[in-house]
Write a structure and sequence with these properties.
Layout: E1 2-3, H1 5-19, H2 28-31, H3 36-42, H4 48-62, H5 65-69, E2 72-73, H6 77-86, E3 92-94, H7 99-109, E4 117-119, H8 132-138, E5 150-153, H9 156-165, E6 168-172, E7 184-186, E8 199-200
Parallel strand pairs: 3-4, 5-6, 5-8, 6-7
Antiparallel strand pairs: 1-2
Helix pairs in contact: 1-4
Length: about 200
């Protein structure tokens, strides 16, 4: 739904700088599709105290005004969400970011009211690709059966989480980066119009 790649370059830099680690800005596009725990392991952060500092700084940097302003919504995102909401679809966001951060983004765009729920990262819940975040979102809608629920994500771990949760998953692959994958794919959120959609997610 939103392209946070430009914002995350500086967000991850803040975390790496906190520990004095070398940082390659080009890797932000890789880290953004991982949990913070996965990123930390990838770059060799194993000490619990170092991880806590790393994670805290990244979460803090997400909400720096300049980083919030650098988040770009794809052109079709808001119109599609408004259309789905008007059609009576129940929309939630499931993300690896914190709930507070997600709500700040939605508020800046004036679309927070379109979403019945926001499920962000939690220390009490396993992250994607585990199904836990999706199951938490689905619990907000007890009257909607799993067979009527669709999860849209832009990474393979999103689709793995959907499969683990027993719901349909759709991969939004704007650049055609995953031609070999058998998952149902779309290249634009516009393709969702007319579909049964209960859960919509941005990246991570």
């Amino acid at each position: 739904m939103a392209d946070s790649a430009r914002s995350l370059v500086n967000v991850y830099k803040a975390g790496f700088d906190e520990l004095g680690l070398p940082y390659d800005p080009k890797m932000a596009s890789v880290y953004m599709h991982m949990s913070l725990d996965q990123t930390a392991k990838l770059v060799g952060i194993h000490d619990e105290k170092d991880y806590a500092r790393f994670a805290y700084k990244i979460v803090e940097a997400l909400d720096y005004p300049e980083n919030l302003e650098a988040i770009d919504f794809f052109p079709e995102s808001v119109p599609v969400m408004k259309n789905l909401h008007a059609a009576g679809k129940k929309l939630s966001i499931v993300s690896g970011n914190t709930e507070g951060h997600i709500r700040r983004i939605l508020k800046t765009k004036g679309i927070e009211s379109l979403f019945g729920g926001v499920v962000g990262s939690s220390s009490n819940r396993r992250p994607k690709p585990y199904p836990d975040p999706l199951l938490a979102a689905m619990a907000l809608y007890p009257d909607i059966a799993p067979g009527e629920t669709v999860y849209v994500g832009d990474s393979l771990q999103d689709l793995e989480a959907a499969e683990a949760a027993g719901i349909e998953g759709i991969l939004i692959d704007r650049q055609g980066e995953h031609p070999e994958e058998d998952y149902e794919k779309i290249s634009s959120l516009l393709e969702l119009l007319g579909e049964k959609t209960a859960l919509i997610t941005p990246h991570n």
